[in-house]
Structures are given as C-alpha cells and as structure tokens.
Amino acid sequence: MKKLHLLRQRLIGAVPSLARDPDRLLTFVEEGSIEFRRGRNLSHEYQYAAQLVLTDFGDDLDTVMVPLLQWLAEYQPDAEPGEAVSFEAEILSNRSVDLALRVRLTERVIAKVDCEAGTIRVDRALPRFELDACPVTQHWQLLIRDTNTDDDYTLASEWGEVDSDGG
Length: 167
What we know:
Elements: H1 2-14, H2 16-20, E1 25-36, E2 44-57, H3 62-75, E3 85-91, E4 97-114, E5 119-125, E6 139-144, E7 154-160
Antiparallel strand pairs: 1-2, 2-4, 3-4, 4-5, 6-7
C-alpha cells in the first residue's frame, strides 16, 4: 500500500492544517482485493478503497481536493472520473467537519520466478505520470476566491519543492 503512503504525504505537505497536525489525518484500507493469474507467474495487483479521514477540518474543501486530484492525475491517471473519489462529512460546528474521503487505488507488483535459482524477484511498479499541462512546475500555490465578490484571490495553501533559484 505504497500509494496510500504517498497520498498521505502529499496531503500533509499540501493542506496547512494537516501540516501543523498530521495526526488529524487517519488512513484506512477498505475492500481490498488481489488480482492475479494462475500459473508460474506470481505478478499481481492490489486493488483497494483507501479511506482518508480528516478530523475537525476547518479549511476550505478545495485545499484538500485540488492536491488530491493533482496526485491522482500523477499516480492513478486511469481512475474512472465519476468513481475515483467519493466523500462524506459530519458537520461538527459552523467552522469544522469530520471529512471522510474514499479513493480507489491500484498497485501492480511484478514477481519474476527463477526456478533454477530458487528465487522470486519482486518489483513494485509505482509509475508516476508527468502532468501534461505543467511538467516542470514543482511548487504550487492554491489561490481561492469567491466568485460572488470582487475580492482578490487568497492564498489557501502551498506544496511541493522550491527550486534552487528560490522560485
């Protein structure tokens, strides 16, 4: 479940309230299964629903959704758009919710059997797909504005690496 760890790291790095208190992000695996073929080949694929629960969440919902969708575009680009992410929320107050996200993930494992040597070599295939729109950008700022106002955009969060030139 390497992808779930990567997704968790992305959200902690991108969502300001999670960066301050990462223990407010709980992660679980539900409905896990393994797809494989019979025979000598032991390659297989993990398929599971990752559940991410953000407790006492008071930020704008897009501070979570935008980095999550960006991560899916990089690590799970074959996800069905209508089924890739679902969510539920429990309203705690006028300012906070408990937010539960469910994300469908797959991970391929290539297991090569060498009968003569008596070995099985396992490679975990976690391909990362470059974002076509901005392949060189490594640092992101999320700017949010209410379309019903003439207010300027507000910086909601930042994530990613800053290059050596400080940009």
